[in-house]
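Repro case for the chain-ordering regression, as requested:
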Amino acid sequence: MHDPSATPHHLEHHFADVEQQRESAKLGMWIFLLTEVLLFGGLFVAYSIYRAWNPDIFHNAHVHLDVTLGALNTVVLIISSVTMALAIRSMQLDLKRATLINLGITLALALVFLIVKYFEYSHKIHLGQLPGKFYSFEGVAGSNPHIFFSIYFLMTGLHGIHILGGMATIGWIMWRTTRDHFSPEYYTPIEMTGLYWHLVDLIWIFLFPLFYLIG
Amino acid sequence: MNNQVAQHNYLSEPRGIKGWLYTLDHKRIGVLYLFGVMIAFALGGFFAMLVRLELLSPNKILVDADTYNQLFTLHGAVMIFLFIIPSIPAILGNFALPLMLGAKDVAFPRLNLASWYIYVLGTLIALFSLFTGAVDTGWTFYTPYSTQTSTSVISMTFAAFVLGFSSIFTGLNFIVTIHKLRAPGMTWFKMPLFVWGLYGTAIIQVLATPVLGITLLLLIVERTVGIGIFDPAMGGDPVLFQHFFWFYSHPAVYIMILPGMGIISEVISVFSRKKIFGYKAIAFSSLGIAFVSFLVWGHHMFLSGQAELASMIFSFLTFFVGIPSGIKVFNWVATMYKGSIDLKAPMLYGLSFLFLFSIGGLTGIFLGTLSVDVHLHDTYFIVAHFHYTMMGGTVMAFLAGLHYWWPKIWGRLYSEGWARVAALLIFIGFNMTFFTQFLLGTQGMPRRYYSYLDQYQPLHAFSSFGSWVLGLGFIIMAIYLIEAIFRGRPAGDNPWGSLTFDWRTTSPPSPHNFDEIPKVTHGPYDYDTVTPVETYPTEKEQG
Amino acid sequence: MDSSFTTIMPPQSSTIASEVDALFYFILYAGLVIFSIVVVLSALFVLKYRRSKRAKTSGVDHNTALEIVWTAVPTVLIIIVFIWGFRGFMKMNVVPKDAIEIKVTGQKWFWSFDYPDGVTTVNELVVPIDKPVKLLMSSKDVIHSFFVPQFRVKMDVLPNRYTVTWFEATRQGTYNLFCTEFCGKGHSEMIGAVKVVSNEDYLAWLEEGASLGSDLPPEEFGARLFVAKACNTCHKMDGSSSTGPSLNNIFGHSVPLEDGTETTVDENYLRESMLNPMSKVVAGYQPVMPTYQGLLRNHEIDALIAYIKSLNKGEEPTHE
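-- result from build under test --
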């Protein structure tokens, strides 16, 4: 029988038991991820339409993206997803230090991702490969060559904002870990952060080939 | 405890302003939304009155064309984003959903509070837009006009973007609450139909709103950076904006009506004291409408230059979204058959809904019909149609719900006599204002017109007179409802004799809703086997 | 303008109008029947089943036969309506082969029409009766929409793209043409006229180069043009300032310009303002005047200048 005097302090008053709380958190996070898919989905639709109307521009412009850097970023994010999963596993095994290390590596890899993107972006700014009315690069054949870079900045920019949000969340989770908020019985926030992080990774895995590898 | 206002209720505890600013109590959050959303309604209504005032004559009465264009745009934007979309879910849903399920709160109370603050933030941004040039594009923001006009499009669309998150989080919260927090024994088919309505709504909120978010973001980026996605000179397409926009905005109208239909199911059943007819049909139709609503957006675009085949498909599917709504209306009428009907205010609004929403829905048939829509599109017929569905439908249902739950929210009854006066004025005023507009539309009067040909003036003037009757009704309503908060007679636990769990609490409910989670021993509408205990004062008690 | 009053639909003036109206009335009557059933039954039940001391109500919540009927009947009705509407719509979208083609341009805030032989009119579409007319439409700026209620015809007009619609007029007369997609300040002023004349009159009108009475004295001709070419949409004739400055008492005077300089309003300035309006904008006004290059012939410009000169005397020549 469950002893009421031993109610876990993390169990919120409106839940009947820990199981109900955990299942609710998972359902909630999956729904949130679904909304993110629809948010990016709109942009993927815009990409598809633009590309169908201007296949030549997309082909001519994408060669100006650095495939090596893009591939590096892809690998970086995939590894960060692994370390994120390892962090959850560590807490399941009550290994607080390992949890912190894994979360820390995830955070560091996310930072690497952003730094690589910083270099990519500044290179484009330097060359004038900018969206819309700021476009001034001469090296892409076709009318309206800015289209490719407009969509590129939009989608990678929105993705980057999500990376930043993820980093802030991971940082917060790390702080809570140091304060012993989590245990093998309760690590739901780490798990939920992991789900979010996997989605951010997954979105990049779609963005990479669509921008860097086409043609 | 029965005929007194309950002491130690959620309104009085915890004490102090912090208890409200940091509240995690779904009931308090519902009340916070009540104040915010009612202010928005007053603001949107104020703009409406100015619009109708200007339309008394084809000549200038009050404002010039630019200002008029801003007034109708703001009326639409405020009413849709700040009033009607949050209205039923955020106020009545927040208040009643956990109670109806026998739960202690929604699944994520902190997210709920965040939803409220996001709503406040969005509203402030909208007000900022208002004072820095406002918008004159129509609430639909069609490109290229919206990318070229010098008014504050960016801040208004950003406000709508922010408000979208409030809506998404509320929907997310409700879905998880309904899945996970039902009292033991409450199966899906023992839930009240208001819950089914909220569930269908929440699905749409969660799936459609992000697409609006991205659409508005694209519009903002188009204006700031000129990416050209909607600009034909830069390889883009203005009609693409319409597709993106209506992909959200059509399902959005079902966000508006589904919870309203849920309320009507409650009100008709309770005030006929009769089991609802066709429970499963109504429940499944809520899901069916939610699903099909995503497939018909192109019926706003029959004449936009889209392919005829697309128009044909959209027209075909549009009719099928009307069938479940019609079935619901028939079910409600059948519920009243051999019922035991009490014409209290909530029921008056319920009957109003049946009358007005039927007109709204049937006029939708004209618009879904391709050859007829050619004549009626972009005329006052459309304006009349959506006011009959949104106001004659959702707002009437909202008022029914407000009058139904007001005694539970505040523990006090309002004046039934004044409620009848207001309901009558609103019904008459509404029909005067908007039925006239069907005729304006068939006669060819285009919408969004600042001035018009003389031949349309008699109808315009009559419609404007109607708006004054309507406005008067709302003013009276505000007065007696506010008065009831302070001086109404105690309502007791269950003034209406309802069988749903929200009426098993005290009025107002205690902060934690139930001392003991209620046991599910019967369905929500089993009036044939269970006798509810009604606490409305009898004639004798009223003196 | 034909403003004959009708209760519901405007008088039918095109070949498709009767079909559209027939379907409209079918939906109306079928809808009225359904609506009446709902309202009458509701009223009946409310009156007959008022709350009494009776303890319990019936638990009947189902009636398969009834539910099938009230699902099937509306379904059949909407299928009929859908097919009927679709067929009408296809007729409206398939242009007859022998149609006269007229190019329509919508812009803020007037319509211009280009005829096959080079004639151009502003805000007036002259067509022959009983002949199909195809409209090839595009916009110079934002989305507009071409709407003639009496013809039951409507189609959006888009920038950088053509949309097509057609009609065949069946009655002589003059009909309202509205812009019906919101396009800004002058949206409700963007009203034109469709003039349906006999075939002989149409051909003769085309012959004449669509002139408006160039045998009139210049000021009178100019006065007619001022209205016909939609100048009065933005330059109000009552002297009030609007989108554009009033032209009353302006000729021969000096006006301040947006760039801080001044200019005298002489014949050259007036001509330049019509053909190249962005070059010298009067201070305090937005640069929104469209160019009339190609829309005004030289003798029409001369007439307008004569008319504007005449506004100095404080008299306006009469015009229709």
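Ordering looks correct now. The mean pLDDT of chain B is 94.
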